[in-house]
Amino acid sequence: MKLPNLVFPITLSVIVLTACNNTGSPQKQDLSLDVKQVSQTDGRLSDRLSTVEERVESLLAQMTLEEKISLTHANAKFSIAAIERLGIHEMWMSDGPHGVRHEIERYSWSSANWNNDYSTYLPPLTAVAASWDPNMATLHGNVLGSEARHRNKDIILGPGVNLARLPLYGRNFEYLGEDPFLAAKLVVPQVKAIQSNDVAASVKHYALNTQELNRTGVDAKPDERTLREVYLPAFEAAVKEGNTQTIMGAYNRYYGTNANQSKHLVMDILKGEWGYKGVLLTDWNVDINTFDAAMNGLDIEMGTEVEHYDDYFLAQPLLEMIQSGKVPVAVLDDKVRRVLRVQLTIGMMDKQRLSGQRNISEHHQAARDIIANGVVLLKNDDKLLPLKEEKIKTILVLGPNAELLHSQGGGSSEVKALYEVSPLQGLKNRLGDKVNITVMRAQNGATISPIATDYMAARHWTGTPQWELTRYKDGQHKTILRGDDWIANSAYQVSEPGQVEHVRLKTLIKPLATGSHTLKLVLEGEASLLIDGKQVLTTKELSNHTRVQGSLNLIEHEILLSADQTYTFELNYSGPASVVLGWEAPGALFTAESEYLSAAKSADAVIYFGGLSHADDREAIDRTDMKLPNDQDTVITKLIAANPNTVVFLNGGSAVEMPWVEQAKAIVWGWYGGMEAGNAYADILFGDVNPSGKMPITLPVRIEDTAAIALNDYNAVESLYKEGVFIGYRWFEQQGIKPLFPFGHGLSYTQFEYSDIQLSSDTLSKDEALTVTVKITNTGQRAGSEVVQLYLHDIDASVPRPLKELKGFSKLALKAGESGLVSISLNKRDLSFWDIKTNDWLAESGEFEVMLGSSVEDIRQKAKFTYR
């Protein structure tokens, strides 16, 4: 067995910032790692790993057939059985791409209601990708691995490396952006850091998991070149360079069968070409069968929905196939070897196994450092940012994300955070009593908004308030077309405008105050609303106390509701367009439009914290469009008109439209920021930290500009990946489409000059390496960091290749006036494409152009070389 390349997440001498004191000033703390400790740890692991294969064979030889079977499937929601007589412990897994998930009951999805399962809530991997910094990936992985060990977990189900092919994809926020090279370079230090804590990483979801729309049934059918160049490099790097101990398969199908039992993906590539020695395990409730899963390389089956764990495909059914000779014992032995290899490698039978730490100040500071490095300054006209504290006496804060906490939403990525600092609280922590901060909740007064989630008592398993969504064949609501969907608020739009749809929305509503509530229904079509089974309004038979305006576009109805009661709301709709159910409730949550616009005009600073939430970015469902929810665009537009110096600060893991982009002076993208989000955001807004993040995704002007939509390749049946290798920015460049903000874009409070590009040679032969060097100078007035991006163009290619392909990057910190050299190496693989004729990587002879820049559109230096 090839030994892992061990790394230690904290370098021998590193200074990081800890939490601010009560004056808002950062305090420094030396977190140097003792050299002797590193040496002892290295020796301990070397001794353990040197005997792994011998111990695997010894244990395997002592096991009965039934005991072997017990290691290939779950014995509870998140565990694999122990074999006590052989000293094999139960193996525990946990969700956790950005924090160890709270404890659930052994045999159900219900919370175990522990009071000691709080974890550090880290920024999601999109923020790590936006840092363009392997050190941040290492820091992220170290915290995750250490806290998983402290919770006695053996496998942490992350990181995720599926690519952001489509802005609508619900899980983009969990992953590392749209570029295969960037994802590959960041997943390796993440995996190494996790596993240095005696925890196995589980890189997911292998492979082609690029939509949640019918995620268990959609059939992914990319051509081989697209598969190899775009969707596999991050997994390949995790295996070959990161030595990941486990990989989680995808929900989707691949050319007709589930990805977990695809011979080509698993046996030919993963375990064949790449020589993977670890475990392939399923996600929960995946569509497999016993024979194909067994023969084509699946090692552990998790989460299948059957009555008993013995009924799993790789349980009793596999045992029977082996006993009948249909599946060779050698196939089972290979799976068991892999499971044992993981257990022994991470020290499950080692008395010297690391114990981990959790919720220590260094972990919380890591969360703050990661998001501070990942925040992207998209626009900063007139140098509006950073805000000058000495010139500000009043700040108006608005927007749905000002006080919203994100840790317990999104699906399997939810985290039970010890605490979470909201953007508003971060401002208060930073400014104290020196500035008057006014908070208002704004909405567009000219339209009807959905019932606010504050009133909703029903929660989806992803942690988000939900309306159960059922689709019917006809208006009688008797024949169900689909009943497993949900939406986050009381607004529904048909998927194809003009085509009549029949739906039912259902949820629990708990009023915040007792009194008269004025229901407001806006629609095109027909609808009825039932409360606790009693019809209170309908468009067919309007009662005397129902007021109608226009041509049945707006219906209002008053009803008395009590704050002491929870009501079942059921909205039935049949129509070709949309329906919105809103209301006016006692003790209104929202400020009148005239009031907040007046306040904006007089405020010294206006900050709108908007964007998405985990009602939009979440597992199990994709977004329906790229618009900001709940008419935020209208509010932002009016705020900017009232006060041109309004700062728009957006959260989210996927692109959104910005119809107000030309009017806005300052736009900041903050992703989801983890538990220290608010403090880090305040650091950025007031210049304590100079923003250095760069977009790991392209922000389109409109959804129709993206490849999958433009090529009509997004549906519930199959994904053909018609754009081929032209994912993300490559598509925009090929098509000549200007995005809203390009891949790699991100501004700073200082400026950087590129000069003196040098190549180590003007020719490159066979397996040689070529080094590109450039001088970077900080020409501004403050310290900052620049991400130098290297893009490569194959000028003489015999196949269609992107105009630019990211093939290197480096983040350099410079003081004001300081210069530094950045060196980036290129090798034969960087020059290569997947040749379908030879089924191998091919670097063709000819001329290549190197482009260095601050984004894919902002190229500062160029040079050419020839490959022979």
TrEMBL record:
Which Pfam families does the UniProt entry name for this protein?
Fn3-like, Glyco_hydro_3, Glyco_hydro_3_C
> Any keyword Lipid biosynthesis?
no
Keywords assigned = Hydrolase
GO MF assignments: hydrolase activity
- On the tree of life, the source organism's domain of life is Bacteria
Every copy of the PA14 domain together lies at 462-604
What family is this?
A: Belongs to the glycosyl hydrolase 3 family.
- Name of protein: Glycoside hydrolase family 3 C-terminal domain-containing protein
Q: Which organism does this sequence originate in?
A: Shewanella eurypsychrophilus
